[in-house]
Design a protein that fits this description.
The chain has 150 residues and is α+β, with helices and mostly antiparallel strands. It has four helices and seven strands. The protein has a seven-stranded mixed β-sheet with strand order 1-2-3-4-5-7-6, with helices on both faces. The radius of gyration is 15 Å and the shape is globular.
Length: 150
């Protein structure tokens, strides 16, 4: 089930950050997104366990995906796609028409997911990531009426 992020999700999201990223967000940084009016974070839950999440910040008509993570034991089950699809639909219904994100040049599974969702490469940020240092690809998706929630 995909739901909006709540306070009760914070510790599990921070734990997933530690597990999935070499430069993770702190629990306080994740918590601060709850009070940020520009933020929309969604959580995939299974039996009260956070198995994935996606976060964004938007200033319509544009938005940026901040983070997307799926628990390692839950990958390749469509959870990342479901989170992104739900995020895109909610952002579109809020007036967002373009969505951006950065992805490591070496993260081919994520690139494949994003390309399958209609994202295209529009630039590159040299040495954007640390631990290890790696370039980021900048991807963009134009949101259309087909991306709205019915």
């Amino acid at each position: 089930m995909i739901v909006p992020m709540h306070e009760s999700h914070i510790a599990q999201i921070a734990a997933l950050e530690q597990l999935c990223f070499s430069d993770p967000w702190s629990e306080n940084s994740v918590r601060s997104e709850l009070s940020n009016p520009l933020s929309l974070w969604l959580v995939a839950e299974e039996d009260d366990r956070v198995i994935g999440y996606v976060g964004s910040q938007s200033v319509p008509p544009e938005a940026d995906v901040m983070n997307l993570a799926v628990a390692p034991d839950c990958r390749k089950k469509g959870i990342g796609r479901a989170l992104m699809t739900a995020l895109i639909a909610q952002l579109r219904s809020r007036g967002v028409t373009a969505l951006f994100l950065e992805v490591r040049v070496g993260n081919l599974p994520a690139q494949s997911l994003y390309q399958s969702l209609g994202f295209v490469e529009v630039g590159r940020r040299p040495k954007y990531y640390v631990n290890p240092i790696e370039d980021a690809l900048i991807l963009r998706k134009e949101l259309t009426d087909a991306d709205t929630v019915d």
